[in-house]
Predict the structure of Mast cell protease 2-like.
Amino acid sequence: MPPKLDTPIKPVSKAASSHRPETVNKASSSTDSISNADLMAVLTTFKSDVLASNKSLSDLHATQYKDLKSDLADVSSQMTEMRKENARLQNEIDFLKEKVATLENSNVAAGSDLVVSQVLEETIERNKCRSNLIIYGVTESTFGAIPQRISYDRSTIIDILKPLGDVIPLNTKLVRLGKVPSDSARPIKIILDSNEAATNLLSKFNALKRSGTIFPNGFRIGSDKTLLQRKLLRSCHSELDRRVK
């Protein structure tokens, strides 16, 4: 059974029915017009921002390119200067090499001359030493005057060497070596007339010692030596002592 309607349905007139869609269309058209305007404004703003950004980037790139170009020019200039400096330094090095070579050759020549001079000097000194003898173990004189001290040394040596005969001529020069010590006697250098006289005296003394002749305690005779020979002898003694220890 159909429901009962309390209020009767009013019929809609044709005029009212046709007027409502027109109103809706006008509102929709107005909304579309506002949206397009806003969209265009946004697009315009975006376009302006993009153009401004592109211009800024373009200006930045131009500035960077200009700076890079300037830096490259500076580097190129510096490289040119460095090439010139390297060339100058190379010339100086070549000059110094030639100078060193010249000096080395000069030093070699000078060194050779020095060696020859030293050899000649050593040869002369050794020839002088051959006519000398060194006597050890002769007590020091208590006299204060030098002539009296020399006379004492001469007479003492002659007395000790009596078994050898007259081997000490009167004109033989005697020299005490070193400073006056307080605890030991200084050695005496005897300067003879010739190498043969010195060799003869030393040979006779050694022969008497081997035969059993007794001399004062500490008395001995040795050959004279140059400064170089004494240095070498001390070096040998030091090395021998080191090896014995």
About this structure: The longest strand covers residues 132-136. Residues 1-5, 12-32 have pLDDT under 50 and may be disordered. The chain has two domains: 55-130, 131-244. The chain is about 70% helix and 5% strand.
